[in-house]
Specification:
Blueprint: H1 8-72, H2 78-104, E1 106-116, E2 119-128, H3 138-166, H4 172-224, H5 231-268, E3 272-277, E4 282-285, H6 287-293, H7 297-300, H8 305-309, H9 325-332, E5 336-344, E6 350-362, E7 365-375, H10 377-395, E8 399-404, E9 409-412, H11 414-420, H12 424-427, H13 442-453, E10 458-465, E11 471-482, E12 488-497, H14 499-513, H15 523-540, E13 543-551, H16 554-560, H17 563-579, E14 586-591, E15 594-602, H18 608-617, E16 623-625, E17 628-630, E18 634-641, H19 648-664, E19 670-672, H20 681-691, E20 700-709, E21 715-726, E22 730-732, H21 734-744, H22 747-769, E23 774-779, H23 781-784, H24 789-800, E24 807-812, H25 813-816, H26 822-833, E25 836-842, H27 850-854, E26 859-862, H28 864-867, H29 874-889, E27 893-896, H30 902-910, E28 915-916, H31 927-939
Parallel strand pairs: 18-19, 21-23, 23-24, 24-25, 25-26, 26-27, 27-28
Antiparallel strand pairs: 1-2, 3-4, 3-7, 5-6, 6-7, 8-9, 8-12, 10-11, 11-12, 13-15, 13-18, 14-15, 16-17, 20-21, 20-28, 21-22
Helix pairs in contact: 1-2, 1-4, 1-5, 2-3, 3-4, 4-5, 14-29, 16-17, 20-21, 22-24, 22-31
């Protein structure tokens, strides 16, 4: 039987079968190769996608790190510094993890902030396996050391900024220079790292594109090798095709997912991102950029970005595209980072931004750039606020000094340099004691430091010394500066130069205390010193003497020669008197030709005798004035404390009495006061007898004298004046009976009558006027000491319905000099009630000027004895002027008593006196006449230049009742 293969047909069939089998085998081998290649390409595609996601995370984190660095450079709080530093460290840690995965493979996780409500955080998980065939990518190799270097530089920047916050402000300039230089270095590193990160992204994208094309090519080859004629081949090919298509579909699906994730990142990032091609046209824009700029995406895409949003500089000037650093990237290929330019919104408003322009490469050529930007409006506003604050401090007209807690000066402004003469460089690092003078009490500095070291502020006045040695006054406000932790870090002093105010105040005080002609102490200061001498004598059980000296026939010199010569004579007489006594004794001028010499701390009146003789002898030598020889003598009266009186008023009065005794004895001599000199003792006994029961008999009555506003001439108040018409003795002068009632204590009950009666009448006048109106009531020293005074005033107010602001209480200076503790309490309670307080007869008593500042007075009344001669006597004129100025300086209104002439009124008005009363307007009159005057005023002004309130009365003719 022949062999099967021997038959030609059989051989052909067998050959064909073998051929088919060979083709099938070849197809199987090819399909297996294509399947393996597709799987390999698919794995590489997925891996590259993970690589791209990691690269995107690194890029985003670099941009956030850069924002943290720029924010650091503007911070002024250590707490904010640490928060931003921690944010930077977290970004750098994530970048380092990403680079480690790119180096060695592994799983990378990150959370990326978005601006989608409800999706503020997007979780990114990328599993990357580093293929051995790809090797290291240059960008990855360069990024690792750059990130390490960036970390080191950031640590140094953190230290410098921390020093700038906590260290000496004087070193701020040096620290800022170092910070600026370091920022330049960090910026260079950031540019390099962002450029490498961008290249990593675009390298991954190029590889993904190549792998996608390779996958499609493998799919095409697979289709060309189908063998439809062989079932096995078809089956095998169909199976392989199924496997391949499934894997390709999976790769396409993975690619789409990756693209969707990238798009989600682009859409949800809070930073604006847009692309620009080589022609400057916008290629894409993310939602954040669209929202920030106010444009719809289709209004930006395809448009020239520079002319649309970057056409002008911050000052509004044109910004040529040729100078635009964003577009220069398209030529230079180097990443550009700009932190201080503006984009322009659709509505035309400027948008301060910081941005980076990152070049896009394809096949080694730049095809465009991606711009990342963020709104820095808040940062710019903060910087502006800081600059404005610093400029305000530097340009402030008051001195500003800052020290550390040890008292070393760290900062002074320009006003300090002007005020002290020191340059800032001369005082930085030194203690403010370099300004200290010897005139400030050490206790004041102790109080100052105790206050500020306990966390409280301090204010007060300091007399310091300038660089040239000149003394000057400052009003200082010093307070501790507390940091975020609640600890004192510095002390801040704000100081105002008040030298001029002090000089003006001292001038006013000098004018108020010293005679303008002789520069001797005047009545104010004399009585103040006498009061102090009495207190000292009481403590030391010593005696004191008051010498009252009056120049004999001085008026004849004024009348026969001239007042100018008379003034010169007074000046020379004052000099001789000062030279005749001890340096500690007081020589003063009361006014006119009257002088007072006070001798304190004497053991016996025998000491006074040689002093009196010496005072008389100093006039024995003629005075040579203007070519004339003038002979002058003096009469002296002496009163000894405590024999002749225990208070200034009594001692002066008795010394004056003794001086008149010397006048009666022929002048040019001296006399000691004796009780026998007091005449009228019997008269006093009569008055005391008739005063007993006078109140019950209804012999007292109140008269009222109007008080007028000097500008409007309206009657704004009236002074209640007590009058006594005795059934036995007739009308008695108040100067006679009131001192007696004060001594006997009857003044208390009489004073209660005055308060009740005056408020009753005032209640009627208030109803008539329907406007503010006051009644002024005199309160005597004895009445003021009455513990029931306040209770009685309140009771009278309740009974009559008169409000407190319609009551004025006039208190003499003698009340204040008693030294009793009740004075402060009573005055404070009266002030709290809202009652107006007036110091009456100012200048005739013996209080110190400090009383005007220590007690709550509202009004100062100038005594008629000073007003009388203001148009004739320069001394009285200057005294009145100084008193008005001083009172206004202390916030007090001024009432001038005893105004009798138009000239006096004009002078007072010119010097801003507030209120006036006197015979020029009206004598004291009964309440019924006051009512008629007020009724007239309601309809018309009661007088003009020719029609006074009392037109028939002459100023110089007071009635017996007055």
């Amino acid at each position: 039987m022949p062999h099967l293969t021997e038959h030609p047909i059989q051989r052909q069939i067998i050959g064909l079968a073998l051929s088919i089998l060979s083709i099938v085998a070849i197809l199987l081998v090819v399909n297996i190769g294509l399947r393996e290649k597709s799987a390999y390409i698919e794995a590489r595609l997925i891996n590259q996608k993970a690589r791209q996601e990691i690269g995107l995370s690194i890029y985003q984190r670099l941009f956030s790190a850069k924002a943290s660095i720029y924010k650091l450079s503007t911070l002024h709080s250590e707490l904010e510094l640490e928060i931003v530093k921690k944010r930077f460290d977290n970004n750098l840690l994530t970048i380092t993890k990403g680079l480690e995965v790119l180096h060695n493979g592994g799983v990378f996780e990150d959370e990326i902030a978005t601006n989608i409500p409800g999706h503020n955080i997007m979780n990114l998980v990328a599993s990357y396996e580093k293929p051995a065939t790809e090797g290291y990518v240059l960008e990855v190799l360069e990024l690792s050391p750059a990130i390490h270097e960036l970390d080191n530089q950031m640590q140094l920047l953190h230290q410098l900024i921390k020093q700038r916050i906590n260290e000496n402000p004087a070193r701020s300039a040096d620290l800022q220079i170092r910070i600026n230089n370091l920022m330049k270095t960090i910026n260079t590193i950031l540019q390099r790292t962002q450029e490498n990160a961008a290249s990593l992204l675009y390298d991954s994208q190029n590889r993904i594109t190549t792998l996608t094309l390779d996958l499609k090519q493998a799919e095409g080859l697979h289709n060309t090798f189908r063998i439809p004629i062989v079932f096995l081949a078809l089956s095998l090919s169909g199976y392989l095709l199924y496997i391949t298509l499934a894997r390709v579909g999976k790769a396409i699906e993975n690619r789409k997912q990756a693209e969707d994730q990238l798009q989600l990142l682009l859409d949800t990032t809070v930073e604006g991102i847009y692309g620009v091609d080589t022609h400057g046209l916008t290629t894409f824009v993310n939602p954040a950029a669209s929202r920030i700029l106010g444009y719809n995406p289709d209004e930006l895409i395809g448009r020239e970005s520079h002319s649309l949003i970057h056409h002008s500089r911050s000052d509004g000037s044109h910004y040529p595209a040729s100078e635009c650093r964003m577009l220069q990237v398209l030529k230079g290929g180097t990443l550009e980072t700009v932190d201080d330019e503006v984009f322009w919104r659709k509505d035309g408003t400027p948008l301060p931004v910081e941005y980076s322009s990152n070049p896009i490469y394809r096949q080694g050529k730049i095809v465009g750039t991606v711009v990342n930007f963020r709104d820095i409006s808040e940062r710019k506003r903060a910087e502006k606020r800081i600059r404005t604050l610093l400029q305000a401090v530097e340009q402030s007209p008051v001195s500003v000094v800052m020290t550390d807690t040890d008292g070393e000066i760290e900062y002074v402004n320009k006003a300090f340099e002007i005020a002290t003469g020191y340059q800032a460089s001369e005082v930085i690092g030194k203690n403010p004691r370099i300004l200290k003078s010897e005139n400030t009490p050490p206790a004041l500095f102790t109080d100052l430091w105790n206050a500020i070291t306990s966390g409280e502020s301090w204010q007060g006045e300091l007399q310091n010394r300038k660089k040239n040695g000149q003394l000057f006054w400052e009003r200082a406000y010093i307070a501790p500066v507390v940091d975020d932790s609640g600890n004192t870090s510095h002390y801040l002093a704000v100081k105002e130069d008040i030298t001029l105010q002090k000089q003006q105040g001292e001038k006013i005080i000098h004018q108020a205390n010293y005679d303008s002609l002789t520069d001797l102490p005047n009545r104010f200061l004399t009585l103040d010193r006498l009061s102090q001498i009495i207190k000292e004598a009481q403590r030391n059980k010593h005696k004191a003497a008051v010498i009252f000296l009056d120049l004999d026939d001085f008026k004849k010199i004024n009348d026969s020669i001239s007042h100018e010569v008379g003034d010169k004579l007074l000046v020379e007489a004052a000099k001789r008197l000062k030279n005749a006594v001890r340096i500690d004794d007081t020589v003063s001028r009361l006014g006119g030709d009257e002088f007072i010499i006070l001798l304190g701390s004497i053991n016996s009146e025998k000491v006074v005798h040689p002093v009196a003789e010496k005072l008389l002898n100093c006039f024995r030598k003629a005075f040579l004035l203007d070519g004339r020889e003038l002979i002058l003598t003096a009469s002296i009266g002496i009163a000894i404390y405590p024999n002749d009186g225990d208070n200034p008023a009594e001692l002066l009065r008795n010394a004056d009495t003794a001086m008149y005794q010397s006048k009666e004895q022929g002048r040019n001599t001296f006399n000691y006061f004796t009780r026998a000199m007091n005449k009228g003792v019997s008269r006093r006994l009569q008055l005391e007898e008739q005063l007993h029961g006078a109140l019950e008999r209804g012999e007292f009555r109140l008269y009222y004298q109007p008080i007028l506003d000097i500008t409007s001439h309206k009657i704004v108040a009236t002074e209640a004046l007590l009058r006594w018409n005795s059934k036995v003795l007739g009308k008695i002068n108040p100067d006679e009976f009131i001192p007696i009632t004060e001594q006997t204590g009857q003044i208390v009950s009489i004073g209660q009558f005055v308060i009740q009666e005056a408020l009753s009448k005032t209640a009627q006048w208030l109803k008539l006027l329907n406007r503010p109106f006051r009644v002024a009531i005199n309160i005597s020293p004895r009445q003021f000491r009455d513990p029931n005074l306040l209770q009685h005033i309140k009771g009278a107010m309740e009974q009559t319905g008169v409000p407190s602001d319609s009551i004025e209480l006039e208190i003499t200076e003698g009340v204040l000099m008693s030294g009793h503790s009740y004075i402060d309490d009573t005055l404070s309670e009266l002030n709290a009630l809202g009652i107006t307080l007036a110091m009456d007869d100012f200048g005739t008593g013996y209080s110190s000027l400090s009383n005007l500042r220590s007690y709550p007075f509202d009004i100062l009344k100038i005594d008629r004895s000073f007003v009388r001669d203001i148009t004739a006597d320069p001394a009285d004129r200057e005294l009145v002027n100084a008193t008005i100025a001083m009172a206004h300086g202390l916030g007090l209104a001024v009432v001038a008593e005893g105004v009798e002439t138009e000239a006096q009124l004009t002078h007072l008005a010119q010097h801003d006196c507030d209120l006036v009363q006197g015979y020029l307007f009206s004598t004291p009159i009964p309440a019924e006449e006051i009512t008629r005057l007020l009724e007239r005023e309601q309809s018309q002004w009661p007088f003009d230049d020719t029609d006074k309130l009392n037109p028939t009365r002459q100023p110089s003719e007071p009635t017996a009742e007055e």
